[in-house]
Automatic annotation (TrEMBL):
The family this protein is said to belong to: Belongs to the dihydrofolate reductase family.
Function text: Key enzyme in folate metabolism. Catalyzes an essential reaction for de novo glycine and purine synthesis, and for DNA precursor synthesis.
EC code: 1.5.1.3
EC top class named in words: oxidoreductase
Pfam families with a match to the protein in the record: DHFR_1
Organism: Arenibacter palladensis
GO CC annotations on file: cytosol
One Gene Ontology term from the biological process aspect of the record: folic acid metabolic process
Cross-referenced SUPFAM superfamilies: Dihydrofolate reductase-like (SSF53597)
Record protein name field: Dihydrofolate reductase
Membrane keyword on record: no
Amino acid sequence: MNILCIIAAAAENNALGKDNDLLWHLPDDFKRFKSLTSGHKIIMGRKTFESFPKPLPNRTHIIITRDKNYKVKYEDCIVVHSLQEALNLVKGDPLSFIIGGGEIYKLGLKYANQMELTRVHGTFDADTFFPEFDKDKWQLTKEEYHPKDDRHEYEFTYLTYTKKQ
């Protein structure tokens, strides 16, 4: 089975980011994101792509934009103009990821069959939010709590969900 996984870090009020930036700095969550997504295709919106200083190493970036003239001068970056086009590019892959932002998560929810959600314990002022999802359609299969410490200003929990058949 091919896995299309949504991966996100969202606060308790579903806040994802503000002004095209993250709201927190969680080094262990970044490490986890890197280890899960490395070697795979990652689907994202243009604004998410532009929030990176440069493309993430060892991943193929599929960037969705409505702008037909949008170009990216990096290898391992493919520009498409719809989620459907992006999904066609990952069809045969055993594992690929949707990494944001809010609008792309919302569109991708009906196609994804797995979710890696880092729930950051707190509420934040944001302009981008993770979409509400029907908890009856998703089964929580793994949960791992991470306390606050000297490198993490907030406590958080890794939640792994699988879509029910």
